[in-house]
Amino acid sequence: MRSQYDTLSSFFERYERASNTGSLDAILTLFADPFTVVTEHGTQFVRISDFAGVVSRRKALFEKLGCKEAALDSLKATPVHDHSALVDTTWRMQFLLSDGRSDTFVVASSFLVYLGENGTKIFVYIPHQDIMGILAERGILPAA
Hints:
Layout: H1 4-21, H2 24-28, E1 31-39, E2 42-46, H3 48-65, E3 67-81, E4 84-96, E5 102-116, E6 119-127, H4 131-137
Parallel strand pairs: 1-6
Antiparallel strand pairs: 1-2, 3-4, 4-5, 5-6
């Protein structure tokens, strides 16, 4: 029997592949419908149908800005009970800029994940930083 950590590790490897290939269908299957996003601005319930548009626009923007990959840098899983876990992750983001420079930085995210008979799903997503703010500070995202 696979351990909860092995299941989560494989799950987030799929998440990484789907994010880097832009496979919208693969990304959407990883999230509960709806799921919750928690930021410094509060909480928001997100329907998968709305999330699909966000993911598509973000992928297009990141490609335009020169994002080469978002690699899973670390994963720490804390079981909540047999069917859920808190997963703390860091992601190494690499951008190849139009002037030939490369910029790499790490961002952190936490997830509450349900592990059930019908699959594993993210039901809460907590980004630790404002990625658009980081991109603007680093000069990757042009000023509005």
